[in-house]
Amino acid sequence: MKLVVGISGASGAPYARRLLDFLAADGVRHGVEVDLVFTRTGRQIWRQEIGDEPRYPFPSWDDQDFTAPFASGSALYDAMVVVPCSAGALARIAHGVSIDLVGRAADVMLKERRRLVLVLRETPLSLVHARAITQVLEAGAEVLPASPSFYSAPATVDALVDTVVGRVLDRLGLPNDLMKRWEGSAPRAQGPVEEP
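-> structure tokens emitted (196 positions)
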């Protein structure tokens, strides 16, 4: 799989870091090639929330470098994740406004009917946001709000982050055990049920 990871200017850099950590450790084993691009504000927020400049073994592209291979559909990238995805980035993607490489790459994913996962980090949502979400869904994107789950009783912030990133990896079809899977609340029956 050829994957683009875009990081836009919304709070939520820990989600991006966890996804990139997983891909750096397990991506090769799953046959994933990663290209990375930050928007300008995505990089600023990374510094604010994480601190250090990210260092990953992936090609990293400037947000204005439209010579990146994934800026064209002929490069045959399979999927893209924007994590976190700001409401502004989602709205620009919904309307095909490619002012940066993240927007252009997302536009390519939509026009080529490739998988596009937008990890929206915004609350509360306005009607403007809801309409943009509807528009990107109708265009073929998947919107995965950064909404952690609690049924696995996560004990740390990292465990909460994993509940979102695990779902992102699920959407990409990448096996992972970042979170405990829901198995229902009733105990499973053991063996065949005997009739009275």
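The chain has one domain: 2-81+95-124+139-172.
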